[in-house]
Every structure is written in structure tokens, then in C-alpha cells.
Amino acid sequence: MIDHFDPVMVDWARAQFALTAMYHWIFVPLTLGLSFLCAFFETIYVRTGNEDWKRLTRFWMKLFGINFAIGVATGIILEFEFGTNWSNYSWMVGDIFGAPLAIEGIVAFFLEATFFAVMFFGWDRVSKRFHLVSTWMVAIGSNLSALWILVANAWMQHPTGMKFNPDAARFEMQNVMEVILSPVAISKFTHTTSSSFLLASLFVISVSCWYLLKKRHILLAKRSITVAATFGLIAAIFTAATGDEAAFAVAKHQPMKLAAFEGLWHGEKGAGIVAAGIPNPDKKPGDSEQAFSFEVRIPGLLSILAKRSASAYVPGINDLVFGNPEHGIVGAEQRIELGKKAITALAEYKKAQKNKDTAGMETALATFDQYREHLGYGYLSDPAEAVPPVAISFYSFHIMVILGTFFIFLCIAFLAGALKGKLENLTVLQLAGVTTFFLALIASQAGWVVAEVGRQPWTIQDLLPVSVARSNLTADTVKTTFFMFLGLFTLLLLAEIRIMTTQIGKGPEED
Amino acid sequence: MIGNLDTATLQHLWWLLCSVVGSLFLFLTFVQGGQTLLWQIAKTDIEKDMVINSLGRKWELTFTTLVLFGGALFAAFPKFYATSFGGAYWVWMVILFTFIIQAVSYEYRKKPGNLLGARIYELFLFINGSLGILLIGAAIGTFFTGSNFVLNDYNLVKWTSSLRGLEAAFNFFNVSLGIFLVFHARTLGSLYLTNNLDFTGMPDFEKRVRTGALVNLLCGLPFLLYVLGMLAFMKGYAIDQDTGRVFMESGKYLHNLLAMPAVSAMLAGGLVLVIAGVVLNAFSRSRAGIWLAGPGTVLTGLALLLTAGYNNTPFYPSKADLQSSLTIFNASSSHYTLSAMTYVAMVIPIVLAYIAWVWYLMDRGKLKAEDVTAQEDSY
Which residues 116-135 of A have a C-beta within 8 angstroms of B? Predict the structure, then answer.
């Protein structure tokens, strides 16, 4: 399908997607959660009529607005990048993948864009109640947009509801509900949004703790912490629960990803979880090197996590690469051979079609159908390519889980402090609170690294490797735009941080 | 019901829907036009702030419409998405850059600590309104003049010009369309601002804003006439109904207009509405010019895009290889996806309704000078 495969170009295109997605993801989780927090604050204001709550709402809204603008700026490029850098992907799966993007525009973006103007400029122009509705609409709109893009991403992790059409050389949608209601989509959406609510709550806690340390805006800070810690605790527990569900889905549909982020090279029954460890960077599939240079293992827990049974078998990287007949696993090595047969059959089908050779078409199609589920593997040249970067996946996953657990306890501590009315005196907690937003950013980014790096080498799990999904561009072209984005986004980020810190320094408007 | 529609009907329907979104975008480029007018019509800081704040309440609508235009084309005509974005790489990249810098500029321009200073953010807005719209015009121009690509058996695109899309800006027809769209956006910008601002006590300001519409329409007129003249006489790309092969046909686009009287009526009616809006604005005290020129723009845009895609015309033709040209038939999604998307599209009237309602609520009272000086949230 691809005439001349340029691995350097593919790496730059991947780097560019990682760059733009990670920049975008600095701002988006804050938007997703802060929009709801603003809605909570304003609801309290409307119900109590207390002007202090209005000032508080407007203060957080201002920070929301600054963050929102750069989220929009970094977001537009992601949509179009599918076309510019991954045009073969756009063609091969556009029939399925394009739909959620269009739906996102129709049902979500306009909700955000329309009511955003009311939220910021409508205080004196519309009724109190309509303003409150608008704030809620922005929150619902932004989270709905997350729903659709996450449905699209989930489909890349677990393609479902479609079939390959050899005439058009693309995948076509068969069942839209299967795409939308896929369990992977549900766990991805709930996990991503709840973790974003947590991140935004920790942002509010961070800023408020800074005020407490500086002994400024004490009332605003305490009130904000009470609401944010409550929302944050619920979100943190929900994040853990949905994270568990997401890991279960990964075990089912992306066993290689699970093996990579757990550093599990040899499959075993009653597999344990590495609570802490240093993976050996030199370890390769099939060799006898040590998997870890240091590890602390909790026995049986991985089997429970992945299969809901302490004695269940969890396949390791080597089993998935070389196969394991005992457990019915066809390895990447064998699937590459089968995939190549599918590719050859597809080429023969195309040739027969050109020559109007109906019998030849039928024979080729029958062969293709026999091997189609391995099609993507046919593009790999070495079974080791089927293994994602183990160390990156391992560290990202563990950092995310450790921080996620820490946040639960932190939210409990803040909530207890708030309920006892002691927040002002707890300097250590305040210091922890100030730094926690940065930890939340790390955890949130790490989550996406697990999801995306862990899926390598696939753009679409088992069907389309990144090397085939790309556009026909030179490495230099993509490299140029990579640095253009890097420069521009970094500049905008610096401006954003300075504006944010200036606004936080100023605090809410005094009456 | 929708599932029973045949594929060709759905393909026509989705080209229509994409064209409607694209034409609405052209109307909403009054935001971009207003951005380029800033230096000419606003002389004091207050005037500038009024213009920016008035446009700032609408910029996201324009932006979102552009994003939806992209999303709808992706869903309905993925081969266009793959071919054009992956092929005409640089032209799209430059356009996207101008929209990235626009997105932060309203929010950051006046905020303390913004690193670059208000002037740079105003320059960003100008670049978006000029270069961005010019290149969008040039890209739309290639719907008629053709692009340089070849598709292989697997629909992989190979671009035959090393300029990767920027070559579109070296074709006089494309550039004329682009320049016209820039002046047209400025015309609409002036009409919108006339409608949206309260000029009490600022007669000079009002005069400058109002004059903008007429001047810019006159500046754009030669380019429009050139585009229309060329459209009537140039060779166009056509699909042979029997064999499906693409060939060059003299006067193809004129033939399309004659074959589709409704489209011709839209074109004529649209242009008349635009002119009527500008005349009303220039020679009366009415503020309603935008409500004539806006719908006029939508009709004109619709007529252009339907001429490009209907009546057996490849909407994204290739001059490098005629048979690689994209038509609404060979570039579309499957019957299933188009049907499913059509159900989703039924919510569009609801979306339009709440946009209109909010617009009405927010713009009942015109934007006054004190609104931008007194409010803490103003841009």
C-alpha cells in the first residue's frame, strides 16, 4: 500500500502528534473540571444570593477563560493533523472516525461557543437564572466534546462495529451504536473526565492554598477548598474505579499494552503487580536478561486486576510475540506471516478487479477473508516491532497510579480540615496543596502516555500500524512544522502562565 | 426513513450540508474582516476596545463553524480530507497557524503580563483576517481550477507540486477569489460593527465604520467580476455520466448554472442582497445591512459550492491526473455512515435556534463605550 516507507518521517509525525496532544492536554482537563466548579460556585451564589459567592465565581471564571482560549488554540490543529500528517489513516478509517468528530462539532462545540459569551459578558444582559443555565451549558458542552473525541480514541484502541471493504481499500462502519457504546469508550470517557474533575479541583486547591499561605482572600480560599475538596474526593474515587475498569478492558483487548505497562515478560497464573521497580532497558523479547534490576511485587494482584480472578493466567510480552499454544495465543511472529498473506491477497484482488477477472477476484477475496484479522501485522517486518516501549509505559502507568492514590488521601485531608474549620492553621497541608496541581498535571499526562505509547506500533489496534497510517510527506516537512508548533505553543504557554499568575496575584476584584 | 435513501441522494445531501456550513462560515468571517479594519476605523483606545469586544463576542462562533466544516467534510467525504490536507499540506498549515494565533488574541490582548504586548496580539488578528482568509479563498479556488495530485489504487495521495498547496496562491483565479473574500469579510465586518455598536456621542467613529462597507465592497468588486467572468467562460472539469470518467468541458460552470436554475437564482439573489445591505448601510441610518448582506453571503457561497460539486462535476479536481479527481460519489463515506450522520444532522435546526436566541438576548442592547471600560471581563 505504501510505496516507500520512511521511518524517520513517521517518527516526526508521531512526535508532532505527541507534542500537540500533550500541549492541548495541559489545558483541556482544567477546562473540563473548572467549568463544572464554576457552575457549582454560581449555583451556590444564585441559591444564597450572597454576593461573595458571585465574586468567587467570577474570579474562577476569569482563570477558566484564560485557560479556555489556549485550549481552543491548541485543539484546532489536532483535528486537522489527522488529515495533514496521517492522511492514509484519514482515508482508511474516515468512514468511522470522521463521524464522532463531526458530531462533536454539531452537538458540543456550539454549545460551548454560544454560551461562553453569555457566561463572560452576560452578567448584566440576561437574567440571573439564564446566566446560570449558560454556565452549566458551557460545562456540559465541553464535557460532551470530550465524550465524542474519546469515543473516537477508544475506537482506535478497540476497533469495533466495522468491516474492511476491499474495493475501496478502507474500513467501513457497520454499527454506530457499537462504536459509541463500546465498553472501552465508556471506561475511557468516565476515567478521563473524572480525572479531569480531580485535576481541576486540585488546581482550585493549589491556588487557594497559596492565598492561605499568604494570608490573603482567606474566606474565598476556604470556601473554594471546601467545594473543590468535596468534588475532588468524589472524582478521585471515581477515577480509581474507572481506572480499574479501563485496565480490565486493556487486558481484554490490548494484552500487549497491559504486559508492557506492567513489565510482564513471561505470562503466568496468579500474576503479581510490581508496586515499585526499575525495568531493565536492555531487555528484548526472547532473551534471558533480567526484566527488572529492582522490584517490589504484590503477588496475585495483576490477575485480579486483569481477569478478576487471583489464579487467572495473564500473558506476557514473550507469549504475545512468539505465541503460546498452551494458552491458545497466536504470537506476533505467526500473525506477521498470516498478515502478509492477507496483503498479497488484497493486491491480487485489486489486480483481478482491474482485469475484470471475476473468478480471480472471488478467489483472492476468499483468501483475504481467511487472513483479514491479521492484516495489520503484515506490515510489520520484525515481531519485536509489536512491542511498545516498555520502560516509558511502565513508568507512566506507575506514576499515574501512585499519584492518583495520593490524591484520594489529600482530598480527604482537605475536606476534614475544611469541616473542622482548621485549614488556616495547617501550614504543611497548605504547602502540599500548593504543589499538588503540578503533580496532577504529571499524572494526567502520564495517563495519556500509557494509553498512546502503550498502543504502539498501532494507530488502530492490530489493524493499522503507524507506518501505514501516515501521509506521503518528507521527514523534513514534518520536522519543520514540528518546530513551528513547538515554538508557537511554547510562546503561548509562557504568555498563558504569566497572565494566569498575574491574575492569581491580583486575586478577586474587591467591591 | 433515511436509511432508505439511495447513496447518490445522501451524497448530494451531504455536499449540500457541507456547503451550508462552509457558506455560514463565509458569513461569519465578518469577525476576520473586522479584525483587519481595526487600525482604519478605530482611532482611540476606547474605539479599539469597542471593536475588539464586539467581535470578541462572536469569534468563537466563526472558529467553531470552521472546525465543523472540517469535521463534516471528514465524516462525509473522507477522501477529500485525506487528499487535500495530506497533499496541499502547506496551504492548510499556514491557514491553521493564522487561526491558532487568533484563538488566544482576544483573551490575551489586554491582560496584564501577556508577554507580547497588545500590538502583537492585534497583529495576530490582522494576519488571521488577511492571510488566513486569502488562503482559504485560494483553496476554494482550486475547487474550480484543480490541484496537483495523483491517487494510487489504494487512494494514497501523491502531490506533484513541491509547494504542497501553496502553488494555489500563484493562480490568478484563486488569488482573485481570495482577495475578494478578504474585502468581502471587511465589508461584512463593517456592517456587523454598525449593527452591534452604540455610537452615541461618537459620530466620527460611526462614520468611519459605516463608510468601510461601501469602500471595501468597491475594492473587492473587480476581483469578484473577474471570478464570475472566468467561471462563465473557463473550461471546467466534468464527469461523463456513462463512463464516470472526468474530462474537460468548455463553459462547464456556466452549463451548471444554466442546468440548475435554483443555484443561479441563489447566486443572483445573494449578490443583490449583499449589495442591498451595503447600500442600505451607506445611504441610510439603518443598522440592518448585515441582515441583508449576511444571508446574501450564505446564498452566494452556497451557489458557488453547489456549482463546484453538483451536476456531474468533480468538486476537487486534479489537473495532474484527471481520473484522480474527487467527486461527491467517489470521495464519500459509506451509505451506512452517511445515513447515521443524517440522523445526527437533524439536531442542526435546534443548534441554529439556540445560537439565534442567545445572539438576540446578548445583542438587544448595543455595546456601549462604558461596557468595555467598566466591565472586568471585557477583552
Answer: 116-118, 120-123, 125-126, 130, 134
Confidence (pLDDT) at A8: 92
Which residues have C-beta within 8 Å of that of residue A62, sequence separation ≥ 6? A503, B376, B377
Of B81, B99, B111, the CB nearest to A76: B99
Domain that holds residue A365: 341-379
Q: Give the Cβ contact number of residue A163 at 10 Å.
A: 10
Q: At B44, is the secondary structure helix, strand, or coil?
A: coil
Task: Report angle CA B100, B104, B107 to the nearest 5 degrees.
Answer: 160
- A481 assigned to some structural domain: yes
**A residues 336..355 contacting B (CB < 8 A):** 350, 354
Annotated domain spans of chain B: 2-374
pLDDT the model gives residue A273: 92
Spatial distance between the Cα atoms of B29 and B128, rounded to a whole number of angstroms: 10
The pLDDT of residue B375 is 67
Nearest chain B alpha carbon to A501: B113
Q: Tell me if B111 and A66 make a contact (CB, 8 A cut-off).
A: yes
- In angstroms, the CA A392 to CA A131 distance is 45
pLDDT of residue A103: 92
pLDDT tens for each residue of A343-363: 999 999 999 998 999 999 999
Same domain, A350 and A492: no
Domain-ending residue, one of A358, A379, A400:
A379
Same domain, A357 and A431: no
Q: What is the pLDDT of residues B106-162, one digit of tens each?
A: 999 999 999 999 999 999 999 999 999 999 999 999 999 999 999 988 888 899 988
Closest CB from B103, B334, B364 relative to A172? B334
- Which residues in chain A are contacts of B164 at CB distance < 8 A? 473, 477
Which pLDDT score is estimated for B372?
85
Closest to B113 (Cβ–Cβ): which among A77, A125, A499? Answer: A499
Task: Assess whether A149 and A235 both reside in one domain.
Answer: yes
pLDDT at A6 over 90: no
In a domain, A232, yes or no: yes
What are the chain B neighbours of A94 within 8 Å (beta carbons)?
74-75, 78-79, 81-82, 333
Task: Decide which of A333, A360, A379 is a domain's last residue.
Answer: A379
A303 within a domain of the structure (yes/no): no
Report the pLDDT value the prediction gives residue B370, as an integer from 0 to 100: 85
DSSP A243-311: HHHHHHHHHHH-HHHHHHHHT--S-EETPPEEEEEEE-TT--TT----SEEEEEEETTHHHHHHHSSTT
Predicted local distance difference test score (pLDDT) of residue A167: 87
Nearest to A126 among B74, B101, B361 (CB): B361
Q: Give me the interface pTM, i.e. the ipTM.
A: 0.92
